[in-house]
Write a structure and sequence with these properties.
The chain has helices spanning 2-22, 85-98, 124-132, 143-156, 181-193, 208-211, 216-229, 240-258, and strands at residues 25-34, 49-52, 55-64, 69-75, 104-109, 115-121, 164-172, 198-204, 233-236, 261-267, 279-282, 287-298. With 299 residues, the chain is of the alpha/beta class. The chain has two domains: 23-66 and 258-298, no CATH class; 69-251, von Willebrand factor, type A domain (Rossmann fold). The protein has a six-stranded antiparallel sheet, covered by helices on one side. Strands 6-5-4-7-8-9 form a six-stranded mixed sheet, with helices on both faces. Helix 5 links the parallel strand 7 and strand 8. Helix 5 runs parallel beside helix 7 (216-229).
Length: 299
């Protein structure tokens, strides 16, 4: 009888532990500062209230975290932007100079096909000189190809997870890239699994009278990539906007890096699985919450 009683107790305890074993944890990176933008003197898990998809999640751990940033700047040098090349160069150089020191940048041109102009470097002078050498091509830019190639590089990078990956890609609506739906579907599927990636897509709305096309494929994929990575998307018609828009994005990147970064580990709401849902935070008085970036999910 005693053995039976012990067995019953063991089974009961095991049954209670099953929900706990099935519950997942997740982690995300967030910028936290004082309301004046200064580093926090201290913060603990009890200070934060976190919700995932509107449901409360328990903060298990919060720890300072510093991630270097690696940026790919992909610029369209096609006939669609030929008249705006001076603004493109000015904007790209303003972007490089506005980045925080130590940021690694890879420079890519997208016409007549995606090509790495400068490999990943922190040398701003080398990047600026390469931007000055960008020449216009008579063909259309390969926006979709450049985007999918970058996603593939991230997917295969063994160092991914040791840095914050960003893509800033400039395109135009000139031409219509011929792509297969399965290419786009495969790329978006990979993008969903790339934790911590951010895509900022900028699209110049070239006059349709000179292009004969509205570039619907480029626009649609740009919007989708930005939405999935919580980046920034802007469609504009004035070439002068390029010169101010790129430095604006670099300044935002710099602000994020200057802010104190924390890796927050949560016990997800009961039943939550797969990709982390929409996250929100309620900080204590005097604390300002910056951008939240999904970093990883694990059991």
């Amino acid at each position: 009888m005693r053995r039976v009683a012990v067995l019953i107790v063991i089974l009961a305890v095991s049954a209670l532990m099953l929900p706990l074993a099935a519950q997942q944890t997740g982690a995300f990176l967030v910028a936290l500062t004082t309301t004046e933008g200064q580093p926090l003197p201290s913060i603990s898990p009890a200070d934060l209230a976190v919700q995932e998809a509107g449901q409360p999640a328990k903060v298990v751990k919060i720890e300072p975290k510093s991630f270097p940033i690696r940026i790919t700047l992909a610029l369209e040098n096609s006939r669609g932007l030929a008249d705006a090349l001076p603004q493109l160069r000015a904007g790209a150089k303003g972007f490089v100079n506005a980045l925080p020191a130590g940021a690694e940048v890879t420079l890519v041109s997208t016409a007549p096909q995606p090509r790495i102009v400068v490999k990943s470097t922190t040398d701003k002078d080398a990047l600026v000189k390469a931007i000055d050498r960008l020449a216009p091509e008579s063909s259309s830019g390969r926006f979709i190809e450049a985007l999918t190639e970058q996603i593939d590089r991230w997917d295969k990078d063994k160092e991914r997870g040791l840095y914050t990956p960003l893509l800033v890609i400039m395109g135009s609506t000139i031409g219509e890239e011929v792509v297969r739906d399965n290419w786009v579907k495969e790329a978006m599927g990979k993008l969903d699994k790339l934790a911590g990636v951010t895509v900022h897509a900028l699209m110049y709305n070239a006059p349709i009278t000179s292009t004969g096309s509205t570039g619907e494929s480029q626009v649609r994929m740009a919007e989708e990539a930005v939405q999935r990575t919580r980046g920034r998307y802007e469609l504009f018609s004035a070439p002068q906007r390029i010169a101010t828009l790129l430095p604006e994005i670099a300044a935002d990147i710099a602000k994020t890096q200057v802010a104190s970064q924390y890796l927050v580990t949560i016990e997800r709401p009961a039943g939550a699985t797969g990709r982390l849902g929409a996250l929100s935070m309620s900080p204590p008085s005097g604390v300002k919450v910056g951008k939240i970036t999904r970093v990883e999910e694990r059991r």
